[in-house]
């Protein structure tokens, strides 16, 4: 069969699989797969470097379906290309326990590089993947040893283009000149509300050109044009590429093509029949895969598998000739840290007070030189977040050997790029003020959902930041982050707990960690391994009548209150709880040893929303917290005026005993 | 004194006030005020229409300092222009109780149109202000009665340009052709990390041109050029305007100009002295305001005050000739709702199950035609959010008479635009899926901080959305929103509680409300006024041994569990709690009547993070919730597999009694 006819047949197979899958599930999004089937066919058959039986082959091209609602397109491609995704899985689309959920989920389905669905995340995370490739190439490629050399391809939708995160990440991609990133934009003129002309009239290619991208426009149903465009995109090595593919959503459906009804609901049995007829397909066949199509995609898979074989041979040569580099490379491939890394984490003598953000900076000073996979940056708050280690070198346009990122004032884009770096073997970290965790929550959630080991360095963690006032003083953020599954929040009370927090964070190979750090200096307590458990007794009292529980800077209010109460003859225990979630996952014996259920006189103190702590103190306890916004003034005054004082904590305890 | 010399003197007054204010506070941001002083002087003296003794004059131009960290520039301008902001307030910059907080706060300082500081919010909210102006003009202007005619001016920074929210809002502003929006971009090449070239190389004017904006570049220290550019921007009526003003941060400071050190810290006494010398200023003078400068700005204020007088005369004529329209206009000016509006809220007979999102749609069908200030839209989820009332008319480019917005897939931009609409007299609402409240949290927080009456319509509120899977199933969002001060979260259990939720939301003139609604149908319960209290007994039992507390769809699990337990001879009370925050603000008698402190056998059930409810059930109770991500499958199966069942609730209660 001629290439043209084969391509048409392959694209129509993808279309009919999508229609059939969505129809059988009675929910889903057929329109996008039908519209982008031609483009995807060209990409997978002509360009994408992949080895379906080795979905984790390190030097594979990355393909990100940013428009995750079009998941049936991806499942069809993976199935046809020979990934371990049998046709029965496609028939179980969107059913419990299948590997074909409504939106692609990383870790569940081989070949799915990341979880997508929330628009804008895919294209932005792809920037992180493409950045990681350049960084690995800079680290590991040597003359005659090109061990890292792959592309990152994205299919993105109108929604991806409208979302602000795409602006942040793509502007940075243009700045850095990530030439091996190729975005295929499904320019189909339709969104859920109707024609995109309802709300969307920007010139997308002009916008990306303004970011420094290489841009093209093609007819997305003209396979030769698409092929030429992708080839031109690959040829442009110094700039990321955008190919705007004009397509027709629901392509082939006589009554749904080019309508928003094609987007998010089954076509219905009658329309599917009509569409199949129009596509020259057996009208009654379902989940039909012509042998030629399997062979067609199999050929590309075969090429990729052969390339993998050659790469493995190159890797063997690399290991033989460059054993030290290879050992470093293995850290990226395995996601592990060098033996004995924990011993490098400093401890701090209790000489003079230190802000926990500064302690965090000291930990990074110690770890960055010895942990090759550790790389991070800040959303333009480097001097405030203390994220740049003394030894760090900036990643710059054309210079990818460094470990430090200047993300610009782009928190959400930073979050997505961190996800991409983590998916590509880095242990990434990123800093901003805690209050601006709000701006990046969408990408934090995806890190949690994908269980990626991203570390967030959130400084200026309370009213303790003082004069910048309520716009910058977090209140509800701690509770919001603590409620997020798989995310561990760690708010250390001093420099040594900060070191413990970094040990917790880097010790977690699966799942992100938020370190929540002060602007202001705090006294330093003796280091203890108990801090790794999230909650422990920091100062006990014989026959204690109440328990004071503090996190972060407020632990010191609890300790001061303990003294006030002791002077009155009221012995109280003080518990430090840098991480509520960690504490709650300790065994019952530990929890009972710290917070005996029999002691109901409990006072928690934290300069943040009380909702985090009402469950810990119970119906008989009290939370000294902040259920209002802060205020602009020197921080000591704000604490005092808003009732966050040792005296208030002592008074609360006195009331209970 | 010649105009040129006066302008220089005025700008230098702003510069020295900023230097002195920051130095006295020993914290703050002098660089931006010093850089933009020339531009701001031209704007305030030549263009801005304002009446300092009537800061709420409805037809004033709006000025938004999007780069809120440059607050001393604004305070200087307000002081010099004759607003009620004495010099002593500028001397109390960033101190407790002053009207000059670190970042401008709406409601605290006359002339501050909105709270700014979190970057991107100002420029994006300004889009809402400019949109509101067009909408009011379309509603109220009549031939010979131009009662609404003002501009919205913004000073924005590099950070505003980098933030994704600016992309979302400005793309929509270009689409809608908001010709009376003028953005003065402080193109100073410096951010906190250093030169913007570290991370920022986009062509900002090309990007805005791609959005359909009118763009210009000028030397921001050439007052004549700035004046000509603003005049040209005003002359362009069909497009919003961006004027990129090349400025020098810290202008005049011999050692700090054009450095990041000028941005966010005091210059220091020595450098201030050097700077003053260079500016031809008395080196030892502090907070010095030359009389000529006060007179210079006073002249502009005088013009504005005269315009206000003429406008008041026009308003009188308007009231006389167009009394019905004037009555409607008063609703916008007062922020109140028409008498008796609550009677228009429908109640629902208990015939067949209805999704609460559909009930919300029915409420909007009833209210949109009778509440002139009610206007809203959706971030491209109109058919899912049920936000478009049957009578609604779309707002379109050049057609601003409608009440419905097609926001596009731009949640964060939507949030900011809603804030702008609220600040300009509307009662705005906006819809998206609950999980994407994450994307707009930054603007939700500002609505809360500014206590604006914005209503969020968050549908698809749990695993009850089914097949779309974990990327779309919220878990932690309810807790995150509940922890936010001034925000009320209302998650109704049926159609009638949905109606109550709308009454709560619209009844709140100060502060936003989030309505959290199901995709799936729910049985309908009898309407009750008790639902306005946030928590009430929905089904009691004589001698109850436990209390089951449910919100939203899970109330029905509690009711079913009650039946299961009754069959075993265990009487339990069922409490509906659509709004934890509302319930907790009821008087103690009500709270005790619903949840008697003596009853410790409490089970809360909600298909979301348990953290919201641990405090309500206490140390002896149980929460049946979801501390993991969801899964893709038909929703009944997801509920069952994840343990959200009546049997699980009954079992939890059984364990407690």
Kindly summarize this structure in a few lines.
2 copies of one chain form a homodimer. Chain A is α/β, with parallel strands linked by helices and 657 residues long.
The separation of the N and C termini of chain A measures: 87 Å
Structural class of chain A: alpha/beta
What is the CATH fold-level name of the largest domain in chain A? Rossmann fold
How large is the radius of gyration of chain A?
A: 27 Å
Q: What is the CATH architecture annotation of the largest domain in chain A?
A: 3-Layer(aba) Sandwich
Give the largest interface pair and sizes: A-B, 113 and 115 residues
Oligomer: homodimer
Please identify the top-level CATH class of the largest domain in chain A: Alpha Beta
Write the layout of secondary structure elements.
The structure is a homodimer of 657-residue chains.
Chain A (H helix, E strand, L loop, with lengths): L2 H23 L5 H17 L14 E4 L5 H11 L5 H5 L29 H20 L11 E5 L1 H5 L1 H13 L4 E7 L2 E2 L2 E2 L8 H7 L3 E6 L3 H13 L5 E6 L14 H4 L4 H10 L12 H31 L1 H12 L19 E2 H12 L6 E5 L3 H4 L18 E3 L4 H13 L3 E7 L7 H9 L5 E5 L17 H6 L5 E3 L4 H13 L5 E4 L4 E2 L13 E4 L6 E5 L4 H13 L4 E5 L3 H5 L3 H7 L7 E4 L8 H4 L4 E3 L10 H7 L4 H11 L1
Parallel strand pairs in A: 1-2, 2-3, 3-7, 6-7, 9-10, 9-11, 11-12, 12-14, 13-14, 17-18, 17-19, 19-20
Antiparallel strand pairs in A: 4-5, 8-15, 16-18
Could you characterize the architecture of this molecule?
Two copies of one chain form a homodimer. By secondary structure, the first copy, chain A, is of the alpha/beta class. Chain A folds into three domains: 3-304, 3-Layer(aba) Sandwich (Rossmann fold), CATH 3.40.50.970; 341-522, Rossmann fold (3-Layer(aba) Sandwich); 533-656, Rossmann fold, CATH 3.40.50. Chain A contains 25 helices and 20 strands. In chain A, the strands form five sheets. In chain A, strands 10-9-11-12-14-13 form a six-stranded parallel β-sheet, with helices on both faces. In chain A, helix 7 crosses helix 16 (411-423). The longest helix of chain A has 31 residues, at 291-321. Chain A starts with a helix and ends with a helix. At the A-B interface, helix 6, helix 7, helix 8, helix 15 and helix 17 of A face helix 6, helix 7, helix 8, helix 15 and helix 16 of B.
